[in-house]
Amino acid sequence: MNLLRAVLHMVIAVVTVVPWAVAALLASPFLSHDALYRFCTDWGRLFVRSGEAILGIRNRVHGLDNLPQAPDARVVLLVKHQSTWETFLLVQVIRRPLAYVLKRSLLYIPFFGWCLARLRMIYIDRDQTLRAVSRIVQQGQQALDAGSWVVMFPEGTRVPRGQKGNYHASGALLAIQCNAVIVPVAVTSARCWPRKAFVKRPGVVDISFGPPIASQGRKARAVMAEVEQWIEAEMRRLDPDAYVAGASVLGAAP
To answer: How far apart (Å, rounded) are the C-alpha atoms in residues 219 and 239?
Structure first.
């Protein structure tokens, strides 16, 4: 049954993304960035809502009051990354433009990637570390100046349930250099959508926004240590069954 649900959800996603993307591409020369962003991310909301209805996934949001409310707030969201689900869920929860740090290869996905290329996103090549950090800071500054919030996955890739990757300091560097606050975000999407799995399971996905973390005048590694501590503690609070003694760290020596 879960396989059939996953197939149906994917069919709906593929069938709807093509006309949606064509309409976005045709309209893009005539729309402001924010209007185009809203049009494109409405498809992301469709992806989430159809997933709720078909896959039986329920979303439970914590800590919304931790998000800065000032219109000119400069925010970098550092998010636990377990599946594709949270990339669309954030769009539904946060009603302002988001600029994701994404791998450049996503631009080559037909229709979906072509629309991404028209939006204010930050594209990096993972195998060029120094150049990627420079690009994150440069384009992140531009996105923040334009009123977007920047979304980064500090572990760099999707992480299996109950594990953690190496937290990289580029998000903290961006926040420090751009006078932005950091909001750490914990997500338990792997309970329903395991890493690299096609079949999803019904259940609850928790997304929790932590208290803003100041970055100005601090060292990037100290800031990231605070981010990591909050996210990993919150993950254990939200999904205690996933964590066992001696859980491995991705990228670490056995």
So the answer is: 30
pLDDT the model gives residue 249: 45
What pTM value is reported for the model?
0.92
CATH of domain 2-242: 3.40.1130.10
Distance CA 239, CA 99 (A): 28
Give per-residue burial for 228-243: e unless 16+ CB within 10 Å, then b.
bebbbebbeebbeebe
Q: Is 209 helix (H, G, I), strand (E, B) or coil?
A: strand
Q: What amino acid is encoded at 120 in this protein?
A: R
Give the model confidence (pLDDT) of 212-239 as tens digits.
999 999 999 999 999 999 999 999 999 9
Predicted pLDDT at 125: 81
Beta carbons within 10 angstroms of residue 71's beta carbon: 7
Contact between 185 and 85 under an 8 Å Cβ cutoff? The reply is no
Task: List C-alpha distances in Å: 158 to 51, 106, 127, 195.
Answer: 19, 15, 17, 7
Phi, psi of 57 (to 5 degrees): -90, 130
Instruction: Provide the strand spans (E) within the chain.
Output: 57-62, 75-79, 98-103, 122-124, 149-152, 181-187, 203-209
Q: Where in the chain are the domains?
A: 2-242
Residue tagged 């859980």 (tokens): 247
Residue 220 amino acid letter = A
